[in-house]
Design goal:
Chain lengths: 242, 275
């Protein structure tokens, strides 16, 4: 079967700085890939290229058979790819329920009742059905991030991208978000996760990747990458984080 | 002159909820509005001469002031939006034109601008008429109220554009990204996510602009517009009562500006976002 995400030799420049220097990666359906690396290594930029929030200068990306080459295709891919951000980015002027239903209505064209049924179900899944009518500002960080996951899932994405989903959270709230992500992984969701949560990577990931300086340095199963890496760069990085 | 740290726009969470707000949500500054209204009524009934006579004399001036203010304000809202979108445009010609407009207008006193519209603009039109033999242009005479509205609009449009621009830019990039990542088009993201939030941010400064226009509209009395200030001056100079006269003019302005401020606060409170 052909990989659901095919990334071929992607390069990206910020002015004269090369942020991505030719990154290639295939992700199979149902696979969970975790990307780690020092800040400025290009891992977030790379993730954001997959739904074209970041434009790349060279190379090609094909998601679920659709190449990211025109506005129409990009919007089509974005409806199939959910994204969760470090800063949650919930819409503060809408209630939790409205956050989860808005895109269903305006993008998917679902009616109000259907959208609310889906939203209620997902809010139960992420464990905060009672907050449906609260505004994001009244929620804790962990709760906000779980709403953000529900919001992305409401579009029935085939792929979920997570950009450091727990980095902005207080330590005691990290686990509740990771639990939701673990459930998703078990259900067979295709996931690409930028995160330094080794516990999550060991429990859920099929593959772990170390990026540095705009390149993939090493790619292996999480057990191998975290315990027995081949590359010196990986060893040096892990010695600092662990 | 840049407005990178626009003092008009406090961060959303730091916005003062107003010390004068009581527990039941009643805005206690309404009491001041009532006091000013009561003083005016008291003066009119207790001392009809000169106050009642003067009120009747400047009555039409109040209508002129309100007409000039409201018309200018509505036009300013439109012009300001275009100027703001122009400044934010990726097209360098458009953004330069918009920026030059804003910078030039903000560098010239409003009174001088109003004089220019009333005295200089007609002679430009007449000059063009003479050159190209267009009778309608040759006979052009400035309409005082029209030129007053034009002058206020042109000037305040520049200030308003900065408010709009700051409002749109105050919404974090993440909001647009989140909307786009859900598959919304740029237009949908603006319509459902960015503009509803930006409107709430700019509401207080936009309300302040209305009050400022109301006050600065008194400058148009210098170009033969019979507003409150001009009618008041006429009454005062024929009756020789500067103290009572200017006090009443001030009270009338105060009543209108305080009332407008309360309305702004009321709208602001209705649309507040919990963060």
């Amino acid at each position: 079967m052909e990989p659901i995400i095919q990334i071929n030799n992607v390069k990206k420049y910020f002015g004269t700085m090369e942020a991505l220097r030719g990154v290639s990666l295939d992700v199979n359906k149902g696979e969970v890939v975790v990307i780690i690396g020092p800040s400025g290594s290009g891992k977030s930029t790379f993730l954001r290229c997959i739904n074209r929030l970041e434009e790349y200068d060279e190379g090609s990306i094909i998601v679920d058979g659709i190449p990211l080459d025109s506005t129409q295709h990009i919007n089509q891919v974005r409806t199939e790819v959910g994204m969760v951000f470090q800063q949650f980015n919930l819409f503060p002027h809408l209630t939790v329920l409205e956050n989860v239903t808005l895109a269903q209505k305006v993008v998917r064209g679902r009616d109000k009742a259907e959208a609310e049924r889906v939203a209620t179900q997902l809010l139960e899944k992420v464990g905060i059905p009672e907050k449906a009518h609260a505004h994001p500002g009244q929620l804790s960080g962990g709760q906000q991030q779980r709403v953000a996951i529900a919001r992305a899932l409401a579009m029935n994405p085939k792929i979920m991208l997570f950009d450091e989903p727990t980095s902005a959270l207080d330590p005691e709230m990290i686990q509740e978000v990771l639990d939701v992500m673990l459930t998703l992984a078990k259900e067979g969701m295709t996931m690409v996760v930028v995160s330094h949560e080794m516990g999550f990577a060991r429990a859920a990931a099929n593959r772990a990747i170390l990026m540095d300086n705009g390149l993939i340095v090493e790619e292996a199963s999480p057990e191998v990458l975290f315990s027995n890496p081949k590359e010196e760069r990986t060893k040096a990085f892990l010695s600092k984080v662990l | 002159m840049t407005d990178e740290n626009n003092p008009l726009i406090p961060p959303m969470n730091a916005r003062q909820t107003g010390a004068a707000e009581s527990k039941d949500g009643f805005d206690r500054w309404w009491i001041l509005v009532a006091i000013v209204a009561a003083i005016i009524l008291l003066l009119v009934f207790m001392k009809p001469d000169p106050y009642q006579r003067m009120i009747l004399f400047v009555r039409d001036g109040v209508m002129v002031t309100l007409t000039v203010t409201v018309s200018s304000f509505l036009l300013v809202m439109v012009l300001g939006l275009f100027a703001a979108l122009g400044r934010l445009s990726k097209n360098p010609v458009i953004s330069t034109l918009a920026s030059v407009y804003v910078e030039v207008v903000r560098g010239v006193p409003l009174l001088v601008q109003i004089f220019a519209w009333y005295f200089a603009f007609p002679s430009i039109v007449q000059g063009i008429g003479d050159k190209f033999h267009i009778p309608a242009f040759q006979d052009y005479l400035a309409n005082p109220v029209g030129m007053a509205i034009l002058g206020l609009t042109f000037c305040y449009g520049a200030y308003m554009s900065e408010i709009y621009r700051a409002g749109i830019q105050s919404i974090s990039r993440g909001q647009m990204e989140a909307a786009r990542s859900l598959g919304m088009t740029h237009f949908q993201a603006m319509r459902y996510i960015i503009i509803p939030q930006a409107v709430r941010v700019i509401l207080p400064p936009v309300g302040n602009e209305f009050v400022s226009i109301l006050k600065d509209s008194s400058l148009v009395s210098a170009v033969a517009v019979a507003d409150i200030t001009r009618r008041g001056r006429e009454f005062i100079s024929t009756n020789f009562i500067p103290l009572e006269g200017w006090m009443l003019v001030a009270l009338l302005y105060l009543l209108m500006t305080l009332f407008a401020s309360r309305i702004v606060t009321w709208i602001e409170r209705k649309t507040r976002i919990t963060r």
